[in-house]
Fold this protein.
Amino acid sequence: MNCGKWIIISPIKILFHFTIPDCRNPRWFKWYPFTFVMAIVWLCLLTYLMVWMVTIIGFTFGIPDSVMGITFLAAGSSVPDAMSSVLVVRQGLVDMGVSNTFGSNVFDLLVGLALPWFSKALASGEAVHINSNGLMYDSVLLLAIVGITVVSFHRRKWYLDKNLGIFFLAVYGIFVIFSLLIELNVFGFVNPPMC
């Protein structure tokens, strides 16, 4: 490990070492529930920090929050999923890799969005207002992409190859471009200006 990387990673590793017990060690084996809870606590704190930093950067450069979410936050949250899918596929468990891609997105939508919205609505007694009318268009685009994905898999007789990967990268590129154009009000006024 080079010196620069070590300097950046060491404080984080030391902090994690003292706050998250390593339950693989026989001494801490029975502490696994606490390990799980602390991992979730750190995940929440780091996620909050990441969203806060991306919001500040977007505000500084005059980029709407929705655009920052579609690009930077989506990449930051999806790269670990993609890496885990690649590792699982390399081990020969292709079904698990493909299921992970669908499962993580379904979980993000149905739990990651629904649970905070439900909690906020329950606590305040009011509906949650989303400050982007472009979300409807993005949802329709995502639904269309799910259809394209299933049809593509079916037409290839459920085999994944390089050409299908290139096709999916192109579809993703088209989705990002259209989503950004929608959120930047190119096709009409859907996203109010930033304060």
